[in-house]
Amino acid sequence: MKAVVWHDVGDIRLDEVPDPKILEPSDAIIRITRSAICGTDLHLVRGTMPGMVPGTIVGHEAVGVVEEVGPAVRGLTPGDRVVVTSTIGCGTCSYCRAGYYAQCDTANPHGPGAGTSFFGGPETTGPVDGLQAEYARIPFAMTTLVPVPDGMSDDDAILVSDIFPTAWFGARLAEVGTGDSVLVLGAGAVGQFAIASAKRQGAGRVFVVDGIASRLNLARGQNAETIDFNAEDPIALVKELTGGIGVDRVIDAVGVDAQRPARGPASGQGKDLESEQELAAPESAPDGDLWVPGEAPSLAARWAVEAVAKAGTIGVIGVYPPGFDRFPFGAAMNKNLTVHMGNCNHRRYVPKLLQLVASGGVDPKPFITQHEKPASAIDAYKTFDRREEGWLKTVLDVG
């Protein structure tokens, strides 16, 4: 079968690889009909999330059809349409039973202390081959696969594999409640769903910061109050729009790869962001190859702490890799902030979000801006990496 395979930092290829097989009684094999490219995949390709094993199939979002099930799998049969939850949980350990599927004691073969196991991740997460492929082996299939409601299209279902539940989780981490003012950092796919999630969890006002016009336009379509960091000082503007107080909640949907403003407006403390060495932005190489990072920025974390009101709450769902140590703890402590962060417990949210989409409560399709065949996946990665105008979420039409 064909699959997108990680070979080295900045080097992914569409390779011919062996078809997956049942390895454990609780496994299933699915034929993938839709996959997608996520910002987390870029972290792996760039090397900002280290430890990838050469030969690992990447990707952690998919919709598919069950082809084969192991002898311990009940309730799923060949022919069933399913969504794959991006993080893997056994469903029976104490963490899974409490809803913390991303901290399953069993799924990660490195042991209970190893943390999240997810598809297409680095060595510390398993690794488990990913979902940008024609077929995939699904561990703990009874937990990791969720049936697609009758009549729901693949395009409606694919973003419930990871993006929508991650954003919903971010709003929960930020403790969004009725009437709250909420700032979303980043208007990419996760940020767009964070806007939608915050509104459906009771937010009274939602602000969003980004520097790409097409993303801000899409956010305005959700009636978010948009801030272009290339033209405006986001911290000063948030303070002005909230009577000098700041927002009640912040959702960091960007993480370690936050870009500096192109024209360097002042931050909330009057500093020129381009003058600070550690805030150097990720950039694509001149020849168009994927960017390979140097020093990691902490711009989103700083803006989150500066923009939130005293005693406010920050929910972090943007990726910060192991070893990142630049969070402004002193400023956060001085403001009595609460900070929640982590990998999404997808299985906790996917079933009800599928029903929300099926009922018409949310339409994910406007956030899909590109459909590509797997043969174009590598070029799609490069364009996504460059954050080109109009490029939000790429879906791979596999089947």
UniProtKB/TrEMBL annotation:
Its cofactor is Zn(2+). The keyword Oxidoreductase applies. Keywords: Metal-binding, Oxidoreductase, Zinc. PROSITE patterns: ADH_ZINC. GO terms for molecular function: oxidoreductase activity; zinc ion binding. SUPFAM superfamilies: GroES-like (SSF50129), NAD(P)-binding Rossmann-fold domains (SSF51735). This is Glutathione-dependent formaldehyde dehydrogenase.
